[in-house]
Design goal:
Elements (H helix, E strand, L loop, with lengths): L13 H13 L4 H21 L9 H15 L3 H20 L18 H7 L4 H14 L4 H12 L3 H6 L5 E2 L4 E4 L17 E4 L2 H14 L14 E2 L2 E2 L2 H12 L25 H14 L4 H8 L3 H8 L4 H12 L3
Antiparallel strand pairs: 1-2, 2-3, 4-5
Helix pairs in contact: 1-2, 2-4, 6-7, 7-9, 7-11
Length: 333
């Protein structure tokens, strides 16, 4: 197969192509996103080395199929992880075609299996890259709107929607840059873990300014049934859980960013197949913090989740990310 490539391709080895690709990604994505793409494409570069492929021009659809089988066995990956791995490879190969490194149609031969619905629900997560895109779009076109505040709040704090809904204006302590989460069962809002879930949550300069602008200029001046001043409001008072879920579904659907949204109905009460739930934002936020080396104990306290539950249900870092993070700690011993 080597040598049977179009004349207009220019020779390039996998490692060099990977670095050029990551340089390109770094100009349009966060450091976390670039790091994730580096981890995933590292496996492809390693496989090419094992196969003696030193020129991407030589890649064919058969190679892609062989790599897929090798990666699944090598990493013992589940369906969701395989989908992520192959999606990244597809993006990499589509980019590689723009620098005459591979056949222009090669990326179309990357088979991405559909994940069973039960696995999607269990592993559904808003990625840091997608969260960044959604928040940037909201900041550009809907700054300090209720929807902007909702997504920014859920992503940065990783809190449950019940906790976000429970916040009053008085719980936003701007001068100290933190939120107070209080269990108020007799006043219409509960925290999932009761009084043990009460805590102070530090917030960034950016979120502090956003909340300040929202409260000053956008928030509806309404009270709830208990004469409290809810942070997140509707015409009737405190924003409902159902409305919060509907907003999250709408804002995380591809069509919100002007992308193709296959099978997405115009009915706003329905969830687009590619949109995610509020809990997927929480899972993505927790994974994002862990990927950025925030200690498990800190994440556990901040998100009100035990280390065991965090590890079992929320931590979606790929095995190779965990490996490299452990290596980073060991290198300093």
């Amino acid at each position: 197969m080597p040598g049977n490539h179009p004349d207009d391709l220019e020779p390039i080895d996998p490692s060099t192509a990977q670095q050029l690709y990551l340089d390109f990604k770094s100009s349009q994505a966060s450091e976390t996103t670039v790091q994730s793409h580096r981890y995933r494409t590292n496996h492809f570069v390693r496989w090419c080395d094992e196969q003696g492929i030193d020129n991407l021009n030589d890649l064919t659809g058969r190679h892609i199929h062989q790599y897929r089988l090798w990666r699944k066995e090598d990493g013992e990956l589940n369906a969701v992880s395989m989908q992520t791995q192959m999606s990244t490879l597809r993006v990499f190969l589509e980019w590689a075609a723009t620098i005459e490194a591979v056949d222009p149609n090669l990326y179309t031969k990357v088979m991405i299996s559909k994940v069973p619905e039960e696995d999607q629900q269990r592993d559904e997560m808003l990625s840091a890259e997608r969260a960044e895109e959604v928040l940037m779009h909201l900041s550009d076109y809907y700054y300090a709107s209720l929807k902007h505040v909702l997504i920014a709040l859920l992503w940065e704090t990783g809190m449950r929607i019940g906790a976000a809904r429970a916040l009053d204006v008085q719980d936003v302590v701007l001068d100290k840059q933190h939120l107070q989460l209080v269990h108020r069962p007799d006043a219409g809002t509960r925290l999932k873990n009761g009084s043990s879930g009460e805590r102070l949550v530090a917030i960034s300069d950016e979120l502090t300014l956003l909340l300040e602008d929202y409260v000053a200029d956008v928030r509806r001046e309404v009270t709830d049934d208990y004469d409290r001043d809810p942070l997140l409001t509707s015409q009737k008072g405190r924003l409902s859980r159902a409305s919060m879920r509907r907003y999250v579904y709408n804002l995380t659907a591809p069509c919100f960013l002007g992308e193709d949204c296959p099978g997405c109905a115009e009915d706003t009460e329905r969830k687009c197949e590619q949109a995610v739930s509020p809990h997927a934002i929480r899972r993505g936020s927790i994974t994002h913090f862990l990927t950025n080396d925030v200690p498990v104990k800190v994440v556990s306290d901040r998100m009100d989740v035990s280390p065991d539950v965090l590890d079992k249900h929320y931590d979606r870092r790929p095995p190779e990310v965990k490996l490299e993070q452990r290596r980073g700690y060991l290198d300093h011993i």
